[in-house]
Amino acid sequence: MAVSKLSIIKLLELALAITCVILHYKSLGERDQITILLVAGTFVGFSIILIALFAGYILNTPINKKLDIFFSLVGCALFIASGVLIIQQWESAFNTETRKIALSKGSLAIINGVLFFFDVIFTFRD
């Protein structure tokens, strides 16, 4: 297996998604039902998808380029939306440890969304 930019990006996306799941567990407290559902669905759902995609890269059986771009575009949109909603929910909360964890979770989600966008660019150019 050759290590490529795409496999490194997939590994980083997976690491950030799992980190977001852990931080989400440590900072439960969002009150808006839409935010709760979107965030949990995005973090857990894309952790599962990324495990499958990364396994495909490791086993030299990557998925179709168009499908990979589709997953990455959806991941970009969902992670950025989740991060924005999390930060919006927690920005005016009292300065507690939970707030710090939640803001970190939102920031990492936005960073992962940007990483998904770079994944789209690299996949398209590859």
Automatic annotation (TrEMBL):
The chain crosses the membrane at residues 6-25, 37-57, 69-87, 108-124. One of its GO terms (biological process) is septate junction assembly. Residues 8-95 form the DUF7775 domain. Coiled coil: none annotated. Keywords: Membrane, Transmembrane, Transmembrane helix. It comes from the Eukaryota. InterPro entries: DUF7775, Ssk. One of its GO terms (cellular component) is plasma membrane. Pfam families: DUF7775. PANTHER family: GEO12064P1, PROTEIN SNAKESKIN. This is Putative conserved secreted protein. It comes from Corethrella appendiculata.
